[in-house]
Amino acid sequence: MLHVQNLSGGYDKKHPAVHDVSFQVEKGSFFALLGPNGSGKTTIIRLLMGVIPISSGGALLDGKPIDRYSSVELAQKVSVLSQENQMGLDFTVEEIVALGRYPYQAKRLFHEESETDREAVKEAMKLTHLDSYKSKPFISLSGGEKQRVLLAKALAQEPELIILDEPTNHLDIKHTLEILDLLKKLQKEKNLTVLAILHDLNIASIYADALGMLKQGKLIQISEGFLKNDEELLRKVYETDLHIAAHPEMAKMQVSFMPRQQITSKRVSTSPFSVNEEKDRLILQFDSQLRTLALGKDGDGLAWSAGMMCTNIISNAEVPEHYIRWEYPESSIECIQEDLLGSSCILMKHWDGAEVHLALFTEFPLSDIDLMNLSISITESRMKLYPVSMTGRIVVGTDRSKRKNKTDEMKKVFLEELKIWVLAKVQNLR
Amino acid sequence: MGSLFTRIYINNRNKFFYFFGILFVIFSIIIALFLGTVAITVPDILRIVTEHLTGIPLYKGPKSTEMIIWEIRFSRVVLAFFVGAALSLAGAAFQGLLRNPLADPYTIGVSSGASLGAVLVIFFQLNIIWLNGFTLPVFAIAGGGLTLLLVFGITRLASSTLANETIILAGVILSSFTGALVSLLMALTPREDVRQILYWLMGSVSMRGWEHVKLIIPFFVIGAVILLLHAKELNGLALGDQSAQFTGINVKKKKRLILIAASILTGGAVAVSGAVGFVGLVIPHLVRLISGANHKHVLPLTLFIGGGYLVLADLAARTIISPRELPIGVVTALIGAPIFTMLLIKERMRRGGI
């Protein structure tokens, strides 16, 4: 549908804001342009739509150079929902949506409205749920409603390609998803092609079929979606620490951002763990929340935990929020704390004859995968020391708040040490 | 029941407005014909007017009465209508095009240019014989046209896209410059002749006759037809130049065409009547308060309301301190300002202060 080839241009001819950009938007697909502010996203749209002159390269729309189209011809194929919208005059919602019919009326002598025009306006307003807004003044609407009206105007143009410049700017998540869901629906049902500038990487990842990443006017990557490997690229582009992980419910990747200002614990202590024994309970408190993996009966899986409380079932004690609950008599719990390669580690065991429950926490920063592997190696250790049929809960935790520069090499060595230590200690505690 | 009525009202609202607008024009023209320093009976007036419009000889009274009604009063009323309609229409177009509620037919300097042309004629006592007594209006139109060209030239050099701000700035610069030239000429004019220039500048439709009506009609028809055909473009431009471009409007070309048409209207009006103020600024706002912003309705309605309004204003100008006359520009503002203020407050209150 749209083939952009080596497109360059911008306001400043000596330093074009967009440099040698090439990409293709297939018919019926959703292409998202991403990139930080000032990376040239909006400039690409302005170049395509002929608002600013192209200095070199160009774009083909259905095989014909886009600058050969007359304004009316172009508007019949492509509609744009831009960020700049001034509205000094007091138009009603319907009048604004009807402006989208201009390209079809321009050739008629008196620009009169036809039945098709009225139908298209009605249809666009129905799609955007604006039926009841018909004669309301545009200026009295909220930001989300205004955006919907402008989208309706763009749809009334009956475009084959719709270009959106941050269509969900200033919108809350409900309205954002509403607009994008509608576009997705039109993409499916009417084979509408969408080219959108999106700011939210996660929204783009969910909705777009292809992602184009811009940095300083250059298109540095086109992909079908984010991969774990894109972390480095995204960090460079956005100059922000971030992590890519799978969406919990969809086969799409999501990006999580890290604050540059480390959020550290207010308390200063030498040990990340403190053990308090009270009359009927044993409380293990973490200095800052630990990333934990709890497996076995009542296990919560991956979570963030502030501590662990071991107490009798009969004690009926209140477990504080973000605490892992271990309902075992505190008297039977064995606990050992030791420094391993400079990182504090704590191992807890409870054996009631039928089951062996083990908990291991370490100060060393580990990834979720490491935690899972660690839990496997603990299970294996237990199988070596106890009958194979012996079950029980496994809890592992790691402190990610102190992100000391640990290399992969150091981690490998530490994990090996840890496994040996665990095997030895589980045996000892027996 | 109430909602049914509201629906019928909304569906037919614009028809109602057009009906009212045309009625207003007819009403103002009839009143303006009947009232005057010389009392003439109503049947006589009707006979004279029908005789001239249809060619059927009906009137058998004295020739002088016929002269007063047809040559002096009726021509004056018709001229006032065209001037008012032209200025209001041009004002609506300028406000819509430049997206500026303060814009009026004089914003982009065309009228100042026309005034300079006219003042030059008065100052040098020019009388070009083959122009047949129309030396002044022709010079005025030439001055206006020249100013428009200069505005385009300056805008073109300053920005490649005909940006509104640049157009307004170029207009303001040229207005000031030509205004200064007019002042200079006035300073150099002997005292007894200054009054003539001053009166021309304030605007008037008195002592003009059918020749001037014939002069303004071609300008009016061309300008009005072009503007009325560009209602959709003016609507589109209200969302901003870029947005208009995206909906398929050839912004540069259409903008230029609308500016030229509005300037033709302004130039024509100023050439025959001088710079009559207030009408072009306020009538479009007044119409928008009632009909909404859609130019499809705003443009024809301003034409009617503006024309009728100036007919009434002229009537007031010649009757209030009769037999002397007030400058029409003074009357338009003195009567119009309070009416407009009242409507504005009422409308804003109705809408809850948006």
From TrEMBL, chain A:
Determine the domain of life of the protein's source.
Bacteria
Q: Which residues form a coiled coil?
A: none
* Entries under Pfam families matching the protein: ABC_tran
The protein's matches in InterPro entries, at most eight in alphabetical order, are given as: AAA+_ATPase (IPR003593), ABC_transporter-like_ATP-bd (IPR003439), ABC_transporter-like_CS (IPR017871), P-loop_NTPase (IPR027417)
- Which SMART domains does the record match to this protein? AAA
Its keywords, alphabetically, are:
ATP-binding, Nucleotide-binding, Translocase, Transport
Domain spans labelled ABC transporter: 2-241
Under Gene Ontology molecular function, one entry of this record is: ATP binding
The name of this protein is Iron complex transport system ATP-binding protein
Q: Which organism is it from?
A: Peribacillus deserti
Phylogenetic placement of the source organism: Bacteria, Bacillati, Bacillota, Bacilli, Bacillales
UniProtKB/TrEMBL annotation, chain B:
Q: Which keywords does UniProt give here?
A: Cell membrane, Membrane, Transmembrane, Transmembrane helix, Transport
Instruction: Cite the Pfam families for this sequence.
Output: FecCD (PF01032)
State which residue ranges cross the membrane.
16-42, 77-94, 106-124, 136-155, 167-188, 209-231, 257-286, 298-320, 326-345
Q: Which Gene3D superfamilies match?
A: ABC transporter involved in vitamin B12 uptake, BtuC
Q: Does the keyword Mitochondrion apply?
A: no
Q: Where in the cell is it found?
A: Cell membrane
Q: How does it sit in the membrane?
A: Multi-pass membrane protein
> Where does it mainly reside?
membrane
Q: InterPro entries recorded for this chain? A: ABC_BtuC-like, ABC_transptr_permease_BtuC
Record bears the keyword Transmembrane: yes
Q: Which family does it belong to?
A: Belongs to the binding-protein-dependent transport system permease family. FecCD subfamily.
- Protein name (Swiss-Prot/TrEMBL): Iron complex transport system permease protein
